Amino acid sequence: SKIAEDIMSEQDENCASTDDSEEGAKICKMLEQAAEPEVMMAGLTSEQMISFSSYQAKQKEARQNEVAKKVENALEVAGLSSRDVTPFLKVRVTGLAHKISATKTINKEGLITIWNPTEKQKADLVEGQVYIATGLLPSAHCTNILYLHARGSSTMWKPLASAQAADFQPFFTPRKAVELSLIGEVPLAR
Q1: Are residues 115 and 137 in the same domain?
Q2: Which of 47, 43, 48, 55 is CA-nearest to residue 14?
Q3: Among 56, 77, 98, where does a domain finish?
Q4: Is the same domain home to 98 and 177?
Q5: Average pLDDT over residues 132-150
Q6: In sequence order, what are the residues at sequence separation of 6 or more whose Cβ sits closer than 8 angstroms to the Cβ of residue 114?
Q7: How many separate domains does the chain show?
Q8: Beta-carbon neighbour count of residue 67 at 10 Å?
Q9: What φ, ψ does residue 24 adopt, rounded to 5°?
């Protein structure tokens, strides 16, 4: 975007320092002016390397703070500093099948959008838990998924007791962490 381009064009990656007497700043300037900075770096003592690294870290932090201020100011000037948004949660749900049901049932799935969720709802809704939900409004229905809306405190989520939940067929497989190197071995969702 234009804002990002303007800010990045103003950034300067040299060794400008507010305290040129600092050893790290002196080393940085010498490396900038050296014909072979790699050779010079190889000849630095461990204390000089620590000083140089510390200086670089301070400079990086100062640049990041400067960029953050410039972004904040640019967004404010562009009228984009604050947004009027309505928070929401999307909850994927499934219908339950009773264990002693004689017929083979296909669990119906749904997606519930909770507009303006309460803090209690954010804290109480737990993945894999069985709830009785009331106060939901249908919004769309397609072949496989039922779409419902909930409005904050007008929707009630009552957890089903463990003894009652045991009467239904299993429906939930907990998620597990997978290393990125093994991501190709993960089976795709249905």
Answers
A1: yes
A2: 55
A3: 77
A4: yes
A5: 82
A6: 88, 89, 90, 91, 121, 149, 150, 151, 152, 155
A7: 2
A8: 15
A9: -60, -40
